Amino acid sequence: MSSTLFVGTVLTLNDDAPRASAVLVEDDRISAVGEEGDLRSRLSADTTIVDLGEGVLMPGLIEPHGHPTSSAVLLSENVVDIRPVIVTDPHEVMKRIRAAVASDSDGVLANGWDPLLQVGLVDPTRASLDELAGDVPLVIVHNSGHSAFFNSAAAAMAGITRETPDPPGASYGRDEDGELAGVAHETAAIFTVAGPFLSKSYAEFGRLITAELTRANTVGVTTLCDMSWNPAQTALLDAAREHSEFTARLRLYEMSHPGGTSAVARVNGDDVVAQVGIKTWADGSPWVGNIATSFSYLTNPTTAAMGLKPHHRGAANFSQEELREISRAYAAQGWQLACHAHGDLAIDSVLNAWEAVITELSLSDHRFRLEHVGAITPAQCERAAALGVTVSVFVDHIHYWGDVLVDKLFGGPGTKWADAQSAVAAGIRTTFHNDGTVTPLEPFRNMAVAMTRRSNTGRVLDGAEGVTLDAALKAHTTSAAWQLQSEDQIGSIEVGKYADLIVIDRNPHDVDAEALAHTQVLSTYFAGTLVYEKN
C-alpha cells in the first residue's frame, strides 16, 4: 500500500471541519484528516511526505457542465480554432478559414465564430460560403454551439437538401423560396451538418480525450460533466480507457430525444466514468437570438446584424407539453434531468413541466438541474428551490459578454444576467461552469466573477448581488459533487473519499476576488497519483 502525507494549510470544504494541517492518503483514498502531530504517528516507513510550503491543499475542482468528449475534438488540430478567446480580429478569423480551405480539399470544420466579440464579422450565407470555399465542404460552428454555417458542398456531404425535415428541437434555416440558407440551429441539426468531419478525430479519440483531461488537470479540475453525451460513442470511450489511464472522472448526461428513452442501464459504469443523467435544450443562445424571454432584444445595428427584427423575442425549442413528455419518459426510468434554459419564459416552461412530472411520479431527491439560467429571476429561484430543482449558472458570460449584454442586447435585463446570488439565497446548491469550448475552463475566474459581477472591462452588472467566497468555493467542489450525484466520492477532503486533490499558490481566504481569479494550480492529484505539476 502506498501512502502520502500532505503537511501545511488545508482547506477541506467540509463544513464540520473546514481547516486542517495534514491529510493522509493511502492508495487512492483519503484515510485521515487532522493535525500533523496526530497523523505522523500513523506513518509507515515508506510514506511520502509532501510539504506544502506556501501552497494550499484543497479538493480537486469539478466542472459541472462541460462537453469534454466534444471539446477533445474541437480543440484538436483537426478543427480550425477561431474562438474569440484565441482570435479577436475579424480579419484574422477569415484569414484562418481561407488558409484552411486552400490547404484541405477534403473539407474544413472551424469552431468559435462570434460577431459580438469579433466585431466586424458578418454571419455568412450558403452563397457566400460557396463563393469562399467552392467545392470544398466548409462548416463554421458558432462559439455558442447553438448554430453552424455551411456551404452547398457540406450540405451535400451531410445528405441535407431542401426536403430534409427539421430534427426535433432544431432546424435548418431556409430562404423565402424554401432553399437551404446555410445555417443549422441547435444541437441535432448542427451534429448532422458537422458529423461527416469528425471521422478522423474519432479514429484518434483516445489521444484526444487524454489531452482534454490533461488540460483540465492543469487548472485543477479532476471531474468533468459531459452535457452532450452520445451513448453511441461508448465504444470509443472504453477503447480510450484501455489504452491510457484517465486523469479525471467523467459524469455523462445523454442527449434526450422526443419520444425516446435511454437504452443505458440506470446503474452503470464505475467511479471514473458513469452516465448519471439526461440533457434537454429548452431554448438556445442569447448570442444568436433564440432564447425565450418575456423581454425584447434591443433594436440597434448589432441586433440587426444578428438578423433579428425590431423588438425581437426568441422562441423555445419545445412546447411545455413536449418538455413534459420528454421529461416524464426519462424520469420514469429513474434518470436525473438537466435542461438548458436561458430565457425566463424557458425557465418557467421547464419548471411547469417538471412540477407536473415530480408530482405525477412522486419524486424526491431527484436533483433536476436548470442549466445556464441567464435570465432567471429571484421568484424563479424560490420556486425551483421549493421543487428541489438545482441550478448551474454560466457566470463567465458576465466576464466576456457583460458589456454586450447590457449595451447591445438587452439593456436593463442584462444587468441582472446570471444571478447566482438569488439561487444561493433561495437555498439552492448552486454551481458555476464554462460549457466546453464556449469559454476557457477557468473555475477560479468563475468564482471571482460570481463574487464581483465584473466584466473584463471592469463594468459591474449591478442588477444583482454577488455571492460570498464560501458559496463560490462550494460551486466547484461540494455543490458540484452533489449535483453530479457523487458527493460520497469527491468534492471535499474527508476520510473515505477519493484523493482527488490540488495544491494552489494562494489561500482564497487571504486574497481579494481579482487575485482569486488569477490563482495558479501548482499540482493536481487524481486518486492519490500526481498527474500535473507546474514547471
What's this entry about, in short?
With 535 residues, this protein is of the alpha/beta class. The chain has 19 helices and 21 strands.
Overall residue-averaged pLDDT value = 96
Strand order of the largest sheet: 5-12-13-14-15-16-17-18
Radius of gyration: 23 Å
Counted beta strands: 21
Distance between the termini: 29 Å
Sketch the major β-sheet: 8 strands, parallel
Structural category: alpha/beta
Number of helices: 19
- Give the CA-based shape: globular
Strand content: 15-25%
Give the helix level as a range of percent. 25-40%
Low-confidence stretches: none
Tell me what you see in this structure.
- With 535 residues, the protein is of the alpha/beta class.
- 32% of the residues lie in helices and 23% in strands.
- The protein contains 19 helices and 21 strands.
- The protein has helices at residues 36-40, 68-74, 90-103, 126-133, 152-158, 187-194, 199-203, 205-218, 234-243, 301-305, 320-331, 344-361, 378-387, 396-410, 420-425, 443-452, 469-475, 478-483, 513-517, and strands spanning 3-11, 19-26, 29-34, 48-59, 61-66, 80-81, 108-113, 138-142, 147-150, 171-174, 180-185, 221-229, 249-255, 273-281, 336-341, 369-372, 390-393, 431-432, 501-504, 521-526, 529-533.
- The strands form 3 sheets. Strands 5-12-13-14-15-16-17-18 form an 8-stranded parallel sheet. A 7-stranded mixed sheet has the order 3-2-1-4-19-20-21.
- The mean pLDDT is 96.
